[in-house]
Amino acid sequence: MARHTSPAAGVSPRRKNSKANNKANKDQKSVDAPDTITITGTGRGLGRELALKFALLGAKVACVDADQNSNEETVKLITTKIQGSTVKAYTVNVAATAEVTALAVKVEQDLGPVDILINNATVMVAHTFLGEQDHTIASTLNINLLGSFWMIRTFLPGMMKRNSGHIVAISSASSLCSLSKLSAYSASKWGLNGMMESLREELREHSNNKINTTVVMPIFINTSADYTKYINSRMPVLSLKHATEATIHGILTDEVEFTIPRVVYFTNLLKRLLPINISDSIKNIFYTKIILPPQEIQSIDPSRTIINKTNVAY
């Protein structure tokens, strides 16, 4: 089914998933929405907007989140706005392998085989390196990195059997340039990029592979004033609308990896080429600094709420 989208400004496409796609999609204005998409972290922010926009494109959407109430709000929002849409909510902790396994069975029963898997579930807790509890750091890695591992390992076999599918990781510009007070978050996103690159190389070993991968690396997204007021940056945060449009365009035109906005990719290249003292001086000018919220704010932070709900021991 033909759908329409416009190339999103500020997207920095790096490589297409194939030479054929590179030629065919060079000036592509229209795309085909797949039948079924599973998106994690749909209870708020980018995940919620991705679910809404893909439903508008006619896809069947499985909304996955550990927070049942917020996830059901997402589904209610979509079904109210889009009459006849097929959207279902699944309460799942992506860091728990048993729950992920059960999810895959349920989604296929309800919506059919998954065409696109979008690993978006993310927690981000600001902390000093020595000033955070062990379980918070472990849970950040479990949700942001291992959760994506478990989701891919569960949904990939079906895609390989059909030799069709698309796996997407919502990473971060912090995977290219780490920030102070985000050590656990940055580690999880650097790891996510490495995992996705290794996965792509493994898939490329199959001569007839038709499973695509995409890594999306946005800067901070303005999901709420409560969130952005603790970010002090010379670069403006992304609007949620722009981040959503750029992400969907990159996915549906089969980009392998891209940053939002494009300047992030090139500044990272420059950072890697320059001597470290010059690189540090540039970062001192074009800085992004994380401000630790007051304790009373930290206690009600959505990421900490999710961590408390999904603390999994390994």
From TrEMBL:
One of its GO terms (molecular function) is all-trans-retinol dehydrogenase (NADP+) activity. Its main location: membrane. Keywords: Lipid metabolism, Membrane, NADP, Oxidoreductase, Transmembrane, Transmembrane helix. The keyword Transport does not apply. InterPro entries: NAD(P)-bd_dom_sf (IPR036291), Sc_DH/Rdtase_CS (IPR020904), SDR_fam (IPR002347). Catalyzes the reduction of all-trans-retinal to all-trans-retinol in the presence of NADPH. This is Short-chain dehydrogenase/reductase 3. It comes from Sipha flava (yellow sugarcane aphid). The lineage of its organism: Eukaryota, Metazoa, Ecdysozoa, Arthropoda, Hexapoda. The gene is LOC112681640.
